[in-house]
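Sequence in, structure out. First:
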Amino acid sequence: SMSQSSQYPLIQSKPDYHSILSRQRPMIHTMATIIDTQCKIVRQLLSIKEQSQLFVKETSGRLAEEAGFQDLSSDLL
């Protein structure tokens, strides 16, 4: 029978995973919120980086043009 099985004590002593997960839910939710926020920040930083690179490229090209280096402006970047 089941009670004679050597696995029975192990099965009886197994943690209550449902209650463990229920207790962890608020912390998991908080971590998910933090990770979502970090993802948004990284996306904003990448956008700022791209805008900065574009600005530098346009400014470099304009300065090169004003200085009379039209032929070199495309090779600078």
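Second:
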Amino acid sequence: MQSIIEKQCESYLKIKNKIRKHDYQINRTLSIGSMKNKIVVLLLTEQPKVVLLELQNLFQRHLEPIRMNRNYERKKSKIRQSGKYKSITNYKRAI
């Protein structure tokens, strides 16, 4: 569902990318995080178009630049050298 709304935003992105230095894309982490809060409202409401337009506007507000040759190795930290491994969250929550 998130990718369908993202496809609807492509025309907006093309217009914005002509003006800016870098090409921009929709922030997927934030869009999926906002979808999980709105999916119940979307299914239960009488007018889903209103919620879909609200989500589309939210997706268009949160863009991130596509930077070429950005491929950094992920650093995994070891919490404990001995004993039971304790997993940690590597990223903070988007929403």
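Remark: The helical segments are 2-8, 10-19, 28-44, 48-61.
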